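Hey forum,

I'm writing up a methods section and want to include a predicted complex as supplementary material. The small molecule is magnesium ion. I've pasted the protein sequence and the SMILES. Can someone with a working setup run it? I'll credit the forum in the acknowledgements.
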Amino acid sequence: MSSRPGNGAVKPVIQVANVVKRFGTFTALNGVTLDVYAGEVHALLGDNGAGKSTLIKILSGVHQPSAGQLRIDGQPVRLASPRDASQAGIGTVYQDLALNPLASVTRNFFMGRELARGPRPFGLLRLAEMARITCEQMRQLGIDLADPGQAVGTLSGGQRQTLAIARAIYFGAKVLILDEPTSALGQRQQMEVLKTIRRVRALGHVAIILITHNEVHAQLVADRFTFLSLGEVIGKGAKAELAGEDIRRLMAGGAELNDLTAELAALD
Ligand SMILES: Nc1ncnc2c1ncn2[C@@H]1O[C@H](COP(=O)(O)OP(=O)(O)OP(=O)(O)O)[C@@H](O)[C@H]1O
Ligand SMILES: [Mg+2]
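Reply by user p_vandermeer:
Happy to help. Structure tokens for the complex are below, copy them as they are.
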């Protein structure tokens, strides 16, 4: 059992232990270890090609590890498919969100998992109840829907992210994986998504893995950081233990960004 300073002994919801992933002769992940706890945001940071997406694909059942182990609530699991991962309680919100912009918020919320009365496919859909649940779940994450029957296309980018997150949680995600949730949004929408992440954290039972290139966003919402570079963990720590300096240094791309800032300044 792992323990955390100041928090007594707490078991991680999900553990990645010495995971290796090879694609042919290329090693994309070389012994990655990561523990994620309920009620915490764990930022996974790293430059292009670091292995973030590969790790996420292993956690969501898309790829199988070449070596190493995944444990959920302490039990070793084999996630042979995305379906396995979702049944094990891993909800992944990809950048495209998998929403249908023309369908209503309620329809998107229940997509493929509608409540019906009587045997499917002809059972009467319990639309009113579905709409009520959708409103309730969105409200819990800070969005007051004017009309759950409105098309998803009419929602803001931040509200759509919240919808995809609320849906994953309602259908049983105890590990929520967010892949660059703020990268395609404007400033205000980004803040909305960060607030949503904090609200999910406040629920207390969900372990959140946040993949981001944005150091500021990670510092705003994450409790713990893991830095990947070329398939290896090059640094990790709780926010309280890491100085902003460390984060900037470890944040791959940070050095290049400083170089770029200097180069741009030199042009003026
Ligand atoms: N299916 C695959 N076959 C071969 N190589 C792969 C495959 N998927 C990923 N890779 C390689 O593994 C390495 C890690 O890729 P990955 O996509 O996990 O990085 P990333 O951290 O998500 O990067 P980015 O920030 O650009 O999204 C890269 O060098 C990539 O080319
Ligand atoms: Mg990626």
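Some notes you might quote in the supplement: The mean pLDDT is 87. The two ends are 55 Å apart (CA to CA).
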